[in-house]
Design a protein that fits this description.
72% helix; two-stranded antiparallel ribbon; mainly alpha; rod-shaped; 166 residues; 2 strands; single chain
């Protein structure tokens, strides 16, 4: 059986490298959110340390998932979903009494950019994993040595010859 070789495209290789970089970024961001949630909240004017810590666990989990798995695509979609949740949290903080609009707008722009990068990376990984399916080539096979009508009963005849010859 021949299996057709499929080469991974440069785009797929760069998407995989980008996923690894985003995995490390996710781990770093997650650690920052776990270690200093109050400081992050003060900077943005959004004082919700429990929320920032939970986001830190999420970032840490997706980062480890990206780095540890053979197929980082589902983890990248998880990063994308998490970033959209971050965007919703940050945009909700614009209307608060203690909010600081300029830092929040800067954070929104940064998270929106990373969200776009996550989306395109996940999309490229999705495309590249669909291309890696092995294609089997059976064109060189013959099947039975004779047509089906001639092969009917051939097994019985060879068994009969073998038992009567001894």
């Amino acid at each position: 059986m021949n299996v057709q070789n499929i080469h991974i495209s440069r785009r797929a290789q760069s998407a995989r490298k980008l996923a690894i970089a985003l995995g490390w970024f996710s781990i770093g961001l997650g650690l920052a959110e776990l270690i200093a949630p109050r400081r992050l909240g003060r900077t943005l004017g959004l004082r919700r340390p429990i929320l920032w810590r939970s986001y830190g666990f999420r970032e840490l989990g997706t980062g480890l998932g990206i780095l540890a798995s053979r197929n980082p695509e589902p983890w990248m979609w998880g990063r994308f979903a998490g970033d959209t949740l971050d965007l919703a949290s940050l945009s909700g903080g614009l209307s608060g009494r203690r909010s600081r609009p300029l830092p929040i707008l800067g954070a929104l722009a940064t998270v929106a950019t990373i969200t776009c990068i996550d989306y395109y990376c996940a999309k490229d990984l999705h495309t590249s994993t669909r291309l890696k399916i092995a294609v089997r080539d059976y064109s060189g096979r013959r099947g039975f040595p004779s047509p089906a009508e001639q092969m009917r009963g051939a097994g019985l005849e060879s068994e009969h010859v073998a038992t009567s010859g001894s």
